[in-house]
Amino acid sequence: MAGRYVSIWFRHLMTDWFSLREPERRKQPFVLTAPIHGRVTIVAANIVAEARGIHAGMVLADARAVEPTLQALPEKPELANKLLHRLAEWCIRFTPVVAVDPPDGLLLDVSGCAHLWGGETPYLETIVKKLQARHYDVQAAMADTAGVAWGVARYGCAPWVIEPRRHADRLLVLPPEALRLEADAVARMHKLGLHQIGQFMHVQRASLRRRFGEHFLQRLGQALGHEDEILESVQPVEAYQERLPCLEPIVTATGIAIALEQLLQTLCQRLQQEQKGLRTAVLKGYRVDGKVEQVAIGTHRPSHNPRHLFKLFETSLPTIEPALGIELFILEAPKIEEQYDHQEKLWEGYGGLDDQRLSELVDRLASRLGTEVIHRYLPDEHYWPERSFRRATSLQEQSTAPWCIGHLRPLQLLPVPERIEVTALTPDHPPMLFRYKGQLHTIVRADGPERIEQEWWLQQGQHRDYYRVEDNAGRRYWLFRLGHYHEKIYQWFIHGFLA
Q1: N or C: which end of the chain has fewer CB within 10 A?
Q2: What are phi and psi of 200, to 5 degrees?
């Protein structure tokens, strides 16, 4: 057991949400209702209604007899779970591990986080005050186990921060309900006169299992720290993540840049020690108003160079809108690859695809112009020109086939050959004239034909006879005839442009 946990209890979760939508309800008694066994029953009451003796489980008619001005709204069954998820995502600014604890709470694994706020007590107070500022009625506790934190938050009293290794002492005076037990087990314990956990905490496990079942022992073991309790975070925690909370909300572009530099230095130092580099990174800024601003980058090869990565982020930083201020920055690296330092050759010059400077140049161009404007191609083993090459996935991908250099090919190839009108002598003379996009071109030089057969194992069809031609304006084109002249169904196409 090596950790610290916080349990947050939203005492009036649903009614608080309705009050946020209509602030005038905060001073009025109102409840949420649902039909249960043919009667309209109260499922939640706000603070004002509870102060007047109205509580969950009462029939609405009986409650109105107590308080004639009571207002009632229908319950929204799925709203509580959605609201808890939204609040859990908001709490990620305090810790990366936040789990939903239905029906009205959250559980946080805060191990190693409190020192960033000046200690555990200021840390817990900050969480409570910020939630109260959002008009939620909350109560929270911190302990060595999630079970004790949960029980103290709901059934305990101050101090809300239980000192390390003192969680069992606080558990002694709590009622059985604090162990998160089923209702029938709690009722049975009270019936036996067991009103505090200390009355049965040291009873033999065999006797407890026989009377109350395995679930009871599991909850007791989790509270004491004898059994592990795994929290399901609402967002998966990246293995490579750095956090930077701010003492004062950051509202300037300079402050955002400084925060990013600090995060990159820390993350890159760790990556370098582990001989790894990042391929993608995301910077998230958690604003005071609850919104999250984020920008992302990608690299063509693994990198742990903080200066280079900062330049990639630099073009996107102006898109971050701090509004009232950013109180937490998180830098995540979702995609990590191995990166080993290569030995430099003394007698050979720099250059080539393995040059780190080339990769960084491509990264900077992609960050400014977009990744779709930069392409690298590798040869592919096909006869058909449009199939004879493929997009490379990275600068490091090796070719599995040699480039075909026996024939001159155009620098620009059309994705799909386009129909043209051609005048040519039969049977195999090159074109004399052709019309492309309404413009007539007179051919003064031509070379060909170069016959390329159809790949019968892929599809059936006619062959192509290619010609390299030059018009009277000095422009050069790559044309082909599909099929033989004598077939009388041949067609002419333009397929590319030569230098």
Answers
A1: C
A2: -130, 0
